[in-house]
């Protein structure tokens, strides 16, 4: 049984005393497990497009049908404009929540591996508790606006923390051999 309350690499990110709902996140974002990182990049790509995977597939299917079956290029261009319109939108909520689900964990969730079951549970929490959804949407929007800056800051912080170790290793490498 996983108990994230006892996981020393995690910290409480959100705690609601009324609903007793708690979310955890990594203390150091650079510790994000590879599988979650790959899924996060995919989620970020769709969040950048302001469209979720299912909607993108549906629009692309309509464009293909309009061209291949109906040979109606006007309809195809109409659907294409839907995609362009979404590129101008501020954000798309579902993709942002999918991104949040990768970076924030429930108390019994394995931080190493994304889980469809836990993602579904988190999305249900967001649906049932608008204040929790609002909290995480604000975080997700901030993540999107400052994604590269936060990453650079995290890398610099990590390098600073490991500078002492790097200096010791450097001295060991350059020490005269007896």
Key attributes of the depicted protein:
178 residues, mainly alpha, rbstp2171, 2 domains, two-stranded antiparallel sheet, 7 helices, 2 strands, 66% helix
Could you give a short description of this structure?
Helices cover 66% and strands 7% of the residues. It is mostly helical and 178 residues long. It has a two-stranded antiparallel sheet with strand order 1-2.
Polypeptide structure, described:
The chain has helices at 34-49, 53-69, 73-88, 93-103, 116-128, 130-145, 147-174; strands spanning 10-16, 21-26. The radius of gyration is 22 Å and the shape is flat. With 178 residues, the protein is mostly helical. The chain folds into two domains: 4-50 and 89-145, rbstp2171 (2-Layer Sandwich); 150-178, no CATH class. Strand 1 and strand 2 (21-26) form a beta hairpin.
């Amino acid at each position: 049984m996983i108990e994230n309350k006892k996981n020393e690499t995690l910290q409480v990110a959100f705690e609601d005393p009324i609903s007793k709902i708690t979310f955890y996140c990594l203390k150091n974002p650079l510790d994000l497990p590879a599988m979650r990182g790959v899924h996060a990049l995919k989620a970020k790509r769709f969040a950048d497009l302001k469209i979720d995977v299912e909607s993108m597939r549906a629009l692309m299917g309509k464009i293909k049908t309009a061209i291949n079956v109906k040979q109606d290029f006007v309809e195809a261009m109409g659907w294409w404009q839907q995609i362009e319109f979404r590129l101008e939108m501020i954000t798309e909520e579902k993709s942002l929540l999918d991104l949040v689900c990768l970076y924030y964990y429930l108390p019994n969730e394995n931080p190493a591996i994304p889980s469809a079951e836990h993602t579904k549970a988190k999305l249900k929490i967001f649906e049932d508790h608008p204040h929790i959804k609002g909290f995480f949407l604000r975080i997700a929007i901030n993540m999107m606006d400052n994604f590269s800056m936060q990453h650079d800051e995290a890398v610099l912080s990590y390098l600073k923390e490991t500078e002492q170790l790097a200096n010791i290793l450097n001295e060991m490498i350059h020490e005269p051999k007896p």
